[in-house]
Design goal:
Elements: H1 3-9, H2 20-34, H3 48-56, H4 64-88, H5 131-145, H6 149-158, E1 178-179, H7 185-195, H8 198-201, E2 203-206, E3 211-219, E4 238-245, E5 247-256, H9 264-289, H10 302-310, E6 319-321, H11 332-341, E7 352-355, H12 357-370, H13 376-381, E8 387-388, E9 391-395, E10 408-413, H14 415-418, E11 419-432, H15 438-441, E12 443-456, E13 460-461, E14 464-465, E15 468-472
Parallel strand pairs: 2-11, 6-15, 7-9
Antiparallel strand pairs: 1-11, 3-4, 5-12, 7-10, 8-9, 10-15, 11-12, 13-14
Helix pairs in contact: 1-4, 2-3, 2-4, 5-6, 5-9, 7-9
């Protein structure tokens, strides 16, 4: 038997890391008990009798050199055996057990009667490769915050938290709210970006508190010529501040009390769509058309900031007044003039046109089709990636259409250089079975809130254009 085999049978052999003398004593004792032949690492027999005589007969010690050789051989045998045994059977702590593979969750068959149309918006695979599963989980979460037993159990199985918003009341649902879990936030935000435009292309500023102050550079150093042996003139960069103040936005809607698992995909899909659409639409209204009134939460948007600074009656450094007061009267010259106003620093990869779809179709597209060079294939196929004169066209349905006397028809430039979007808090949902006559109608009222701010901080000065410029309809 080798030392390794002996160790496997008696793991106490080297317990406590004994020295060579103690190791020999233990080996001798164990071999004597087992009555086996012991071999060293090279396969040669170890003479147990010799070892025993050397150990026990202290009156007649063997020559020092011979004893040292035997000690070295036995120590080498022990070390080699230990190394081989450790390599073949590495030690394992008692608590180190392989974790079982998590079971893949399968959506119940009865739930698959519905499809997640909104979670499929423009192939949101970057957020959820399985739209049905994303909608199912969101619907289960919503039913869970409503206290439906099956949903509460399902959320626990799927690891979906039902956390309250600590900033709101800790009381009943009608007084507080539930934070949308982080797993769902990207999906909701991306739905908002598909519906809305301003959030997607403005400069996002996360807000950890209700207010945030951001320094903004308004001027730089000035270079001066100096004569020989003359001192220079000092200049300093100029700064001001952009102040963001979180504003609460709320929407209310109703849904049926029938929150069964068979319709959970439909529930999740509907709620995500309605809340995302309402918030994104309001964000665009505030960002592009806000006039500072309560309707817009006190926010002044890009359009009013431009017209307040440059007026609406004549061409100026930041606005061009169109040839007519309707989309059909806009000319290519009008749009070229707008592009000519934009400073070079704003001609970035994020530079684009912002307008209503009607303006693109009745104005820009009409002008492109009027110019020569188009063939029937171009007109028939068109392009889903909208561009005009080499720049992207980003449609936002809040912009002005039809008769637009002295109104902003199109904006051109880099929105991120002109505006900050303060993101204080994402979605919070609360439910009630009694508000808005919900009890009488056997419905559930859903209250969604979020907190944000928009500050359009740079549209130029009275003597120079800023990072965004605009085309206005002609004054009457």
């Amino acid at each position: 038997m080798t030392i390794a085999e002996l160790m496997k049978k008696y793991p106490e052999l080297l317990k406590g890391n004994p020295d060579a003398v103690e190791a020999k004593r233990r080996v001798k004792a164990l071999v004597a008990i087992d009555g086996v032949t012991l071999t060293d690492a090279d396969g040669a027999d170890i003479d147990i009798e010799v070892v025993e005589l050397v150990t026990m007969a202290s009156e007649e010690p063997e020559p020092e050199a011979e004893s040292a050789d035997k000690d070295a051989n036995l120590e080498k045998a022990v070390k080699d055996a230990v190394a081989k045994a450790m390599k073949a059977n590495p030690p394992r702590a008692p608590f180190e057990r392989p974790e079982p593979e998590p079971a893949t969750f399968v959506i119940p068959a009865q739930s698959k009667r519905y499809r997640a149309t909104n979670f499929r918006q423009r192939n949101l695979t970057s957020v959820s490769p399985d739209p049905e599963l994303a909608a199912y989980k969101f619907g289960a979460w919503f039913a869970g915050i409503c206290g439906v037993p099956w949903a509460t159990k399902r959320c626990k199985e799927l690891g979906i938290p039902l956390h309250r918003d600590k900033a709101l009341s800790e009381g009943v649902n009608t007084a507080g709210g539930f934070l949308v879990p982080e797993d769902f936030e990207p999906t909701i935000i991306e739905l908002m970006e598909q519906y809305g435009v301003f959030r997607k292309y403005a400069s996002i500023e996360p807000m950890s508190g209700d207010t945030k102050t951001i320094p903004r550079r308004t001027g730089g150093l000035t270079a001066y010529f100096v004569g020989e042996n003359s001192s220079g003139t000092q200049s300093d960069p100029a700064w001001d501040q952009v102040n963001l103040v979180a504003r609460k936005l709320m929407t209310l809607t109703k849904t049926s009390t029938e929150l069964g698992e068979d319709a959970v995909i439909n529930i999740g899909d509907k709620i995500a769509n309605e809340a995302a659409y309402a918030f994104a639409y309001k964000e665009d209204l505030c960002g592009f058309l806000g006039d500072g009134s309560q309707t817009y939460g006190g926010i002044v948007g890009v359009g009013p900031r431009l017209t307040n600074l440059f007026g609406v009656s004549d061409d100026d450094d930041g606005v061009i007044v169109g040839t007519g007061d309707t989309i059909a009267e806009i000319t290519m010259s009008d749009l070229n003039k707008v592009m000519g106003l934009l400073p070079l620093y704003a001609d970035t990869p994020n530079c684009a046109w912002y307008c209503h779809r009607r303006f693109f179709s009745g104005g820009m597209q009409r002008l492109m089709e009027a110019y020569t060079g188009n063939n029937i294939v171009d007109l028939e196929n068109g392009s889903r990636v909208l561009k005009f004169l080499g720049y992207p066209v980003r449609l936002t349905q809040v912009m002005n259409t039809g008769t637009a006397v002295s109104q902003v028809l199109a904006i051109f430039g880099d929105l991120a250089l002109a505006a900050k979007f303060g993101d204080r808090r994402g979605f919070t949902l609360a439910t009630s079975d009694s508000a808005l006559n919900a009890f009488e109608q056997d419905e559930i009222v859903i209250r969604a809130t979020q907190r944000f701010d928009i500050v359009v901080h740079d549209v130029g000065t009275t003597t120079s254009a800023g990072p965004v410029v605009a085309l206005l309809g002609k004054a009457s």
